[in-house]
Q: What sequence folds into this?
């Protein structure tokens, strides 16, 4: 049996109907797999990746070969996405392509058929893992000697799963006896650093020494000393100050001379944020509106699905003001403007 030859301990079989269909899932001893649901077209399970990874969601999927029933397959895929919030990987024969470049020979694929698949991928927040090996995974030779080749098999995953396995790679293997190319997914994790840094302990008694205003820690080496001196020189050169409009000019010049400082304008920034926010807050945060506006304008030129637009809004547009909002309360009128721009998109 395949299970014994692959040295697998546990399994789940979904029997075939006649000569078609049939699914199987094998896993090794020590691997914890909790099967959630299964049918003639899918096996859905939760996998324990251990202390460093945690649980993740796995789905082995088979798209309905009948194009009239293909929407049922996409509905099932969306349903399975909603059954878990864990990082998700789905792999299998989806019986569909995402573009004309994934097909050679035979009649053209209906565009709407491919669009439905792409929209389902976007709605499920899935990304294609790519592949190494031959481009096409399915080959069919007709009686009139016309060869049809398509990429029907693939691995898709959410960004969260990709973060867990950033080095994962899918391989398309060759086969002389099967019409589908076997897929092998190697889920290598990011190698962890073996060498551990020596722990540093801060002594609270150092704070009681009145001789020091600041404490600087570095390695006792000439290279560290040179780097520290360079940092201090830059810091000295970049000392800046801002005076209120009521400060007399003579006082300004005296303070500038003592500190060797520069005078900055009100709307200069530090770490991307305004150094001072006055009464006119809209001017201080107007760059947020400009950034969102440029992004939305660029997106409008592209042909995007509804799901694709939703992903861009949540992942990009709504993330732009997050950093500023964590430090300042931006005006309600600016929030209304941003909301309006996103709604119009």
A:
């Amino acid at each position: 049996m395949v299970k014994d030859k692959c040295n697998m301990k546990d399994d789940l079989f979904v029997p075939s109907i006649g000569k078609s269909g049939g699914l199987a899932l094998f896993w090794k001893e020590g691997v914890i797999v909790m099967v959630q649901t299964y049918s003639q077209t899918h096996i859905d399970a939760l996998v324990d990746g251990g202390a460093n990874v945690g649980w993740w969601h796995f789905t082995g999927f088979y798209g309905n070969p009948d194009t009239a029933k293909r929407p049922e397959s996409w509905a099932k895929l969306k349903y399975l996405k909603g059954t878990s919030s864990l990082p998700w990987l789905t792999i299998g024969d989806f019986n569909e392509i995402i573009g004309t470049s994934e097909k050679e020979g035979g009649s053209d694929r209906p565009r709407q058929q491919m669009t439905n698949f792409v929209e389902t991928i976007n709605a499920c927040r899935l990304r294609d893992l790519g592949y190494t090996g031959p481009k096409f995974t399915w080959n069919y030779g007709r009686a009139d000697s016309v060869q049809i080749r398509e990429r029907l098999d693939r691995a898709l995953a959410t960004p969260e799963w990709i973060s867990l396995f950033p080095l994962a790679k899918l391989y398309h293997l060759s086969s002389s006896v099967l019409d589908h190319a076997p897929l092998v997914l190697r889920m290598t994790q990011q190698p962890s650093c073996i060498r551990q840094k020596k722990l540093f302990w801060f002594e609270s008694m150092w704070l009681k020494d009145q001789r020091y205003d600041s404490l600087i820690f570095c390695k006792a080496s000439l290279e560290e000393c040179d780097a520290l001196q360079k940092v201090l020189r830059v810091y000295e050169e970049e000392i800046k100050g801002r005076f209120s409009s009521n400060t007399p000019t003579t006082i300004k010049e005296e303070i500038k001379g003592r500190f060797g400082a520069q005078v900055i304008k009100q709307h200069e920034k530090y770490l991307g944020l305004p150094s001072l926010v006055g009464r006119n807050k809209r001017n201080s945060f107007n760059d947020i509106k400009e950034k969102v506006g440029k992004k939305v304008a660029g997106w409008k030129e592209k042909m995007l699905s509804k799901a694709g637009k939703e992903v861009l809004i949540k992942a990009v547009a709504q993330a732009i003001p997050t950093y500023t909002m964590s430090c300042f309360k931006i005006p309600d009128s600016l929030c209304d403007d941003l909301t309006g721009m996103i709604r119009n998109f």
Q: What stands out?
A: The chain has ten helices and 17 strands. The longest strand covers residues 32-39. The chain has three domains: 2-186, 217-264, 273-345.
